[in-house]
Amino acid sequence: MKATVDWTGNASFKATSGSGHSVQLDGPPDHGGENLGPRPMELLLMGVGGCSSFDVMSILKKSRQDVTACHCELDAERADEVPAVFTRIHLHFVVSGNNLKEKQVERAVSLSADKYCSASIMLGKAGVEITHSFEIQAAS
């Protein structure tokens, strides 16, 4: 896997993935940024949510659950000192669908947390406390 990051002025950078997709990164205005894109640590947090959400949906599809929506809310805390690493991340899944089985949703979230989500497992091994929860809603 490869990626590039190119400075585009002030505290702004263009990050490009090996598959050719780009994201504009920027710093906060008090650090020379113009708020043109997410901060790098925000992008890392979004990556954790995306990685785990991908797993959860894949597992639920394989277990033939009729999912109509999957929403992952992430809440993170960072250290006060530099480096301001993540110290805690909580992922809360809101899964909507028709006749969803609670045990299947719980299994999907657990498998992502314990076995499949490379991003959260990697951060957990680095000392970040990572927790998960879920709720099920009927399809609207």
TrEMBL record:
InterPro entries: KH_dom-like_a/b (IPR015946), OsmC/Ohr_fam (IPR003718), OsmC/Ohrsf (IPR036102). SUPFAM superfamilies: OsmC-like (SSF82784). It holds the Pfam family OsmC. Residues 15-37 are annotated as: Disordered. This is OsmC family protein. It comes from Marinobacter nauticus.
